[in-house]
Records
---
Amino acid sequence: MNKIAQSVRLWFAPQRIRDEGATPDYRFSLANERTFLAWIRTALALIGGGFAVDQFLPELAWGVRAGLALGLLAAGVLCALRAVNHWVRCEQAMRRNEDLPVSRFPTVLGIGVAVVAVAMVVVVLFGWEGR
């Protein structure tokens, strides 16, 4: 738990990352930042999709609509949090001259979005209207 707490503290005090290792080539740090921003854009798109499902598909049964919307919203929240964590971990690895960290999160996110998409295809094809 101590390692997790240290990592979360770095989210709010990124200047402390400089306390260890050597400064990497700025191009790598900027690439890490661009990757972070891509994850944030993905999170915003997922959150927007969740709100769109909830607001623009009122004819769906409440449970179906809420399930799809909450699935997309949860994926967006997780994606945003994971973006910060991944940025910190990559920056630390570059400063320590270590391999960049690997993650299962892209796979989990992809499968989660695919499940929601398949559910939406089923809804479009068979129309689960709520009354």
---
Amino acid sequence: MAGVDRLGGMNPWAVLGGGLAAIALLAGAYVVGRGDGQAIEQGKQATATRAVAEERAAREQRVDQVGAGAVQAEAQRTNTMTEVRHEIERITVDRPVYRNVCIDADGVRALDHAAAAANGEDPGIGPAAAGAAPAAAPPG
């Protein structure tokens, strides 16, 4: 019988060889499993990348459509824009408006009267009213 020593036990070399074969099988299974895991993860990543690319393409298409709509609306607005011109009527005054004196003598009297009334003074009607008698009542 091979692998059994004379004392009835197992041959140590056979046990060592079996152990090494088991370790080699475990290492092979680990490497194959790791490769399968990487392939699965790469497939998931490729799927996610493809989904992102499709979403990006769909959004870019929507942006292009909106941009085309905006260009069309701008073109339509430009075509419907109308130009409005206002004509200003010029009025000529027969007397000069701007002189060294801003207001005439009647205006100065009116301003003096308003200032005196605002200050609580009784300015009267004008310079002629200061020395004149009060007006008579109308007949009636």
---
Amino acid sequence: MMDLQSFVSDYTKDKKHLQLVIGIVREGDVEYYSFDNNKKKSMIHPENMLFEIGSITKVFTSIILLEMEK
């Protein structure tokens, strides 16, 4: 856990509104780790949080159009 904490702290240190949740599956057991810089702590456990899934299809479409233009 300490290796994960030190790795993540470098990434999250300057991001004020970031909340990062990492789930690790080992031999059928799931462990959740939550990291943030928000002073107001969330009362929701990581395993009960809902996340939006971003669309990256626009990126792929743009790349294909640029390749076709070449």
---
Amino acid sequence: MDDHPVEPLTAVRLATYGRDDQNELLGDGADPFGVAETGLTWLPKQEHFGVRAGSRLVAHAGLSRVPVSIGGTGTEVIGVGGVAVAPDVRGRGLARTVLTAALTHARTMGPRHALLFCRPPLVALYERLGWRTLDQEVYVQQPEGPVVMPLRTMWTPLGSGTEGAEALEWPVGEVRLLSYPM
């Protein structure tokens, strides 16, 4: 048994995040997120959060403020994407750590909701982290025009409840992301 206390790993805002960082996390394979088969074009993230173990990046989450139409009303959401934990450190709560930091920042950005897209095997993970499944088609912009998002759409409120109950629920109506998915 190791008698040395292990420092808890914390998330920080990253000044930069690029392909080399992604490769450090997930390797340099052609499809590190397992979504290439969708054929989608993705939006780069604007804000990045990471967890480092020493100098090594072991977890990441990215944010983008994106326009959306819900029930014909234009608004914005915080898109969450690029969530990754290095395979050799999974199961240690690092997804929660990096997402908590990212969502804490997202709450300062204005929109009332965050949205993400994930493969079906990851739905249970995000549900454990407080995300909810949006059980309706969501249209996303692509070079050829809007398409139905083939991945699962999940959301979480960014409000604290002081804004009223409506801030904690997803609005009713057709959802169209007016940008590439994040």
